[in-house]
Write a structure and sequence with these properties.
By secondary structure, this protein is of the alpha+beta class. The protein has 14 helices and 12 strands. The strands form 4 sheets. Strands 4-3-12-11-10 form a 5-stranded antiparallel β-sheet, with helices on both faces. The longest helix has 18 residues. The N and C termini lie far apart (74 Å). 47% of the residues are buried.
């Protein structure tokens, strides 16, 4: 039965609950959907939001205010003695990290993010046209100033006109985006926690690396693709499983003296994954779910997707060499497949929606770490600190475009002509990319399955440049000059 309460007598259970949370030093915001006079008795709550009523609009408005999706600027039309005079209120701007905070489904008016909606319509036209000759399906997530400007999909999962339509929840094989979204982020966290040093020798963790030329190779060397390794070996022809791969890699001869040149290598990132597993005592997929994807709410991101989501997965190549089938629902990369689907260089599947959360988080952290904004209170504590993110995403030196794990724009970059020298990103063989520019406060996630039905399709190369140019030149609240030529 209901208990009648006077406005000046809040339920003891509620106030006791708030007191207990405060004693545990948990953040507390009380939200009132009823009488404001009752709310005045909750003055001990560190935060108080008055929604005035329990209708749907009030509930949505309160939720939007709490996650930073909308501005808070209301003022009390009455006094709530003894603490709140008439006219009292707070001003809070929309959160810079609203995408990572959970509002990744809501596109804003681009003008709120300093972008021209007419110019952005060209991006939509490019993507629709791309479904005719680049890939059957594609999705884009684009954010600026913490606001989601685009979260859309185009085309179909396969070329068959009866194939399901692509959506922002379509799962794409990320290929080498695994290197940065997964492996590099895990390394960042271990370095941030003091469990790993960039100049630690790989041989300290993997005994097979504690010999000959390999003895001098460090974590930094592998992140910068200067570890003496060849770019690729078709291990998949004869090997299966982690132990066989570790043994074969440990027996390799140097392609060049470690540290003397930059040679992009899948094998280096495979090795870093083995290192992560040794340090953490957990498989790579489990470790990433616990420390990266879970904290960011990336519920659709992981290795070896379940059969229950098969109807949302974009097929990749018609494999006539290894598996003899149209690859769908399992990793396209042959070495990652032979490793069991979980590898440091490839194997992740994800959606534009999930990657919007990741990109928004890392953009906010990179901006803070580079001193472009003040401290960001919404950054998840479980993730690497802004200073570490900034250190990993800065170009390491003039000799190449590489950052630690990440790449930076150079020459005819897939980022186009307008992402600046301080931008960072990566591409994936299947037709995926992510580019982040802290100066422009911009990220673009572009997912396609361009290898369907064959990797011989190279239309994605000029296509990606055109899309990123169209996005960058839609910015209207500041000049966006072409990037200066560089290495």
């Amino acid at each position: 039965p209901r208990t009648a309460l006077r406005a000046d007598e809040p339920p003891v259970a509620l106030t006791s609950f708030i007191d207990r949370l405060r004693e545990e030093r948990r953040p507390v915001v009380a939200v009132s959907f009823g009488s404001p006079y009752f709310s005045a008795q909750l003055a001990d709550a560190p935060g108080l939001v008055l929604a005035w009523g329990g209708d749907d609009a009030s509930q949505r408005g309160a939720a939007d205010a709490l996650i930073g999706r909308t501005r808070i600027s209301g003022r009390l039309p009455i006094a709530l003695p003894p603490l709140y005079p008439k006219g009292h209120g707070l001003d809070r701007a929309p959160a810079v990290g609203a995408v990572a905070s959970g509002s990744a489904d809501i596109e804003i008016d681009p003008r709120e993010a300093g972008m021209d909606p007419v110019a952005l319509a060209r991006v939509d036209r490019l993507l629709r046209a791309g479904t005719r000759d680049v890939a059957p399906g594609m999705a884009i997530a684009m954010g600026r100033a913490g606001r989601l400007v685009r979260l859309r999909a185009y085309g179909r999962l396969d070329w068959d006109p009866e194939s399901p339509a692509a959506t922002p929840s379509t799962l794409f094989d990320l290929a080498s985006l695994t290197k940065v979204v997964g492996t590099t982020t895990a390394i960042m966290k271990l370095v941030d926690e003091g469990r790993l040093r960039l100049d630690s020798r790989i041989g300290e963790f993997l005994p097979e690396w504690d010999r000959g030329w390999m003895r001098v190779v460090t974590v930094r060397d592998l992140l910068l693709h200067r570890g003496g390794l060849p770019p690729f070996r078709p291990f998949w022809r004869t090997l299966r499983g982690r132990e066989e791969y570790r043994r074969a890699i440990g027996e390799l001869e140097a392609d060049y003296r470690p540290g003397s040149q930059t040679v992009y290598s899948d094998i280096g990132l495979m090795t870093l994954a083995f290192t992560i597993e040794t340090i953490t005592g957990r498989p790579l997929d489990d470790h990433l779910e616990r420390t990266v994807f879970g904290p960011l709410g990336m519920s659709d991101t992981g290795f070896n997707p379940s059969a229950s989501v098969a109807d949302r997965i974009a097929p990749t190549e018609m494999d006539t060499v290894f598996r003899g089938e149209h690859v769908a629902g399992v990793v396209h990369d042959e070495n990652a497949f032979a490793l069991g689907g979980v590898a440091g260089h490839a194997g992740l599947f994800s959606t534009a929606r999930d990657l919007a959360r990741f990109a928004d988080w890392i953009l906010a952290a990179a901006r803070e770490g580079r001193g472009l904004v003040g401290p960001d209170a919404r950054r998840a504590d479980e993730l690497p600190s802004p200073s570490i993110v900034a250190a990993f995403s800065d170009r390491a030196g003039p000799e190449s475009s590489r950052a630690l794990g990440w790449d930076t724009p150079s020459g005819r970059s897939s980022a186009g002509r307008f992402f600046g020298a301080g931008a960072f990103g990566h591409t994936g063989f299947t037709g995926t990319s992510i580019w982040i520019d802290p100066e422009l406060d911009l990220f673009v996630v572009l997912l396609t399955n361009r290898v369907n039905p064959t990797r011989d399709n190279l239309g994605h190369i000029p296509f990606r440049r055109a899309v990123h140019d169209a996005v960058a030149t839609a910015i209207v609240d500041r000049p966006v000059p072409p990037r200066e030529p560089g290495p």
